[in-house]
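Progress narrative, Year 2. Work on DOMON domain-containing protein from Drosophila yakuba advanced from sequence curation to structure prediction during this period.
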Amino acid sequence: MSLQDVLWIVLTVQLSFGVCYFENNQRTQDYDVDKNGSVHHKNWVRDEMMDSLGMYWLKWWINANENSIYFEVTVHTRGFAGLGFSKDGRLARADVVLLWVDDATGHANVLDCHGASGPPLQDDTQNYDVIDGKQNGTHTFLKFKRKIETCDPFDIPLSADTFKVLWSIGENDPIHGNLDWHGQSRGVKSLQLLSPMFTKNSNSIEGTQKWDITVNNVTIEKSMDTLYWCKIVRLPELTGKQHIIGYEPLLSGKYNTNVVHHMTLFECQSKLFSGSDPSSWDLWVRSAGTVCNSNQLTPRDWDSCSTPVAVWSLGSDGQFLPPHAGIPMGGASGVRYYMLEIHYDNPDGKESVDHSGFRIHYTPNLRTHDSGILISGVSVSETQLIPPGQKKYRSVGICGPSCSSVMFPKNGIKIISGTLHSHQAGRTISLRHVRSGKELNPIIVDDSYDYRHQKVHQLANETVILPGDYLITDCSYETELRKRPTFGGYSSKEEMCLSFITYYPKIEMSGCYSMTPVREFIEMFRVYQFYSFNMTDVENMFLYNTDYDVDSRHTKNATTKSNYGKTSKEDVIYQESLLNKLVISDPPEFHDRTFLSHLNQLPWHDPLFTKRVEQAFITGTHMTFCRVSKDSLSIPSEIIRFPEFTSYVKPPAACLNYFFTDNEELRSGSSRFLTDFTLILFLIQLGFQTTFL
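Result:
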């Protein structure tokens, strides 16, 4: 019997035990519909396999009436199971619980702890309650709960952020005084704990079919740091309109070695451009594809492929839609061609051959609503600038009334979910919502964003966006170790700030972006003219990727040679930058200096200067773009100022000690003197409560 056969037997036995034990604890997911038609999901249950072999299963759900979260663990051990919550994945900053069933008494135990530099330390206040637990010859099962907010400085308040959930399996029960976390197996998984997640199993309906869309043997050479590859595919033969109910990635390499950074499948409007030859699309279907967004290599007609129907980024499992919504495909008015775009990121200079893509799940059993995906945020451009040496620096992208007033139906669109996207410097991203001069509750907030784990954020409560509303994608970045500015761009060493929004009912809009106007961006840094190019030329270079011949008389003496050692891949990006083609002629004190070199020499170490730049870009003018599926030029771009509104204020913390302490520092310090401090705060809080009774 092979090792693979043995592992399958173990997994099958484990799952049979798990189903047997928890069969009486199933909850039926349902939902309410409010007066606006928005769905509010309730009684949902999440189930995750924490490891790759099915040795550790975690199930959880929310009890809103109790403000509590319930957990069930099924672990292949008769020893202990460890579970931890962390913002950064480190045990030293984690909120930890140890779980076991006593071998002698059969008593189920839950021990509330916190991470330290060594083994976890037991919390003075125990905030986890064991409900049930038992073990058999191979497995341990425990059910327990805690408050979402415990007011314990050693516990992490649970929120909508992406958490690093730590897990550990020990062979033996914990020994008093030696709470060793490092069992026989351990790991970490990024999860959003307070939202539902629809899966392939929850969408299993009769008649569901699969459509696999992949590239064919794309070669990523050692010299390629970043490659965008596009492939045209044709819709399979269908009997009529269908609904896409979900999609998942098909990755050709192992997760930790795959060079695929993100993938998008776009609808193509094959009749968008006059004079196009419709037969060309079938020729492109038979081809292997080509480099995306290349003036020389990419056919112009491919610019019509702009409406996303599937989006995948690092760490994602794909997306499955709730049962009342599906993305339309086929039918008399449906598109016939799609474009698969894959971004390859190859920082280690490896040569590989890839055939990744998507598996699309679709059904002829149409759902209530046609849904769609639109992209919002900062238009990808070098006018997005993030200074070096920053602990936190923000950029915002606006989708405003020029889009929403024209394209949204009278009753608005309802947001189902969103995927937030930036690159390596991204730290927090939020999707904000403004109506009639007032900021409403944020739609999505992830204050622990990790570009390696970009899972979809499923909304428990759908959000209605009305005509005239603003959507603001707000990103913050950390560049403390970088020595030069980071610009917006397609490489993972450059940056983005985007939201991929799944919504219904579907409208003919694929994107809603903004950027700093080119002239304002340049004049922000006291530059007013360049050799060889007037300002209109420069604007066209940024906005339309227009090529111009550079006058060598004014560039041969302009240099941006790296001052940071031998040439790196970042140096290559800088040397090829559009900003490096622009040689300053006015003002005279900067002449013969490239604009890129000028930006490198600015006093980014001065926090007052950097803050002024940040605020000027946020609160200043923004050029907005509304990309419409049927006609990409039907709504002209518009220059607006950042809207004035009353900002949303997060409700005050319910826990008094949060006003005086930084929980993150408490957990990382692990000092026992905090017991007295916490007790004092508790007594103060109790006194306040007594006073107002």
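The domain at 203-370 is CATH 2.60.120.310 (Jelly Rolls). The chain is about 15% helix and 35% strand.
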